[in-house]
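Problem 3 from the worked examples.
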Amino acid sequence: MKGSFLLSRHQNNLFKHPHFGHTITDDCYGHQLHPLSLHGPVIHVIADIIKVHPDAEAKGSMHHHFFVMIKQIISIKGSDPSIVNLEKEHFVAVRYGDHLGIPKPIQGLEAGQSIELQGEYIDENHVYITPDNREGEPCIHFTHRPVGFVIYHGEEYE
């Protein structure tokens, strides 16, 4: 798979943090030491779901994969909101069903619905290609503890 090692691919474009090494954020958060971290800023958004892929298994865990259009940036920690292109679709990956992701699948994910998310933001210059994100759209991942959460139809998943 093309570009599976984010940090080695982009080390010339990354910030140098004294504790965490190369990152794509300008702030230090403990989540960057977590093995699932891609060393990005943490973003909290409200978005509209525009396309839902069938659930996918990756490295022994299940994931929801879907695309959203961000309507509102509630907060971003570790970067300026200007890195978020509100005109582009954003790929979202939500891990579930194991001790690292949310405990259970999100019921009824469908296009046209609103969703609130918090996770690690990977901009289009640092994202890597996956089977469900072949165009390399910006990505919100790590949408589970200890960084993120999902609120869908009034139910919070973390």
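Problem 4, a separate protein:
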Amino acid sequence: MRLRLKHAAAAAVLAFGATGAAHAEHYDLGPVVYILPANTATGHVDNLTIGSFTLTDKSNIEGLVYAADTLSGTYPWGGTFSFTLASVSPTGSIVSGVGTYTSSGATFSYDNLAAGSYTVRVSFNWANSGQLRQAQLFSTIDTTTAVPEPAPVALAGLGVASLLIRRRKARKA
């Protein structure tokens, strides 16, 4: 009876010890400044690179590409400034090496993305409605490492435990 209890305890450790909390990371990419062509009121840009990120494990990712409305700050000699920027409407965002555009807007998500380095790109329409002839684009990405399902891990643990029991019985016989 004592031997079976040891094996049951080992199986439980194997089954539940391999599952853990999800690992999450956050990336802020940008700003990327796009200078608008002179003497043009509107336009379209394809595949402007916003930045890159690296996954160390297979992960799920969710991201957002957005543009700044204003540029403001303080002059080195004192006083403040605030300028409006061009109006930007994202038409699609992509993570290179994964596939095609994932949305008609600025959000994207992928499940079970393999470990590796990836680049975020965006396509957008712009209108020169601001005081400065530029667009400033950013991206945020949140990752969650995929966690194994408990049922397959439990079955693997029980399989290992049963092999240990058989081996032990074979040695006694």
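Solution to problem 4. DSSP finds two helices and nine strands in the chain. The chain has two domains: 1-19+149-173, 21-147.
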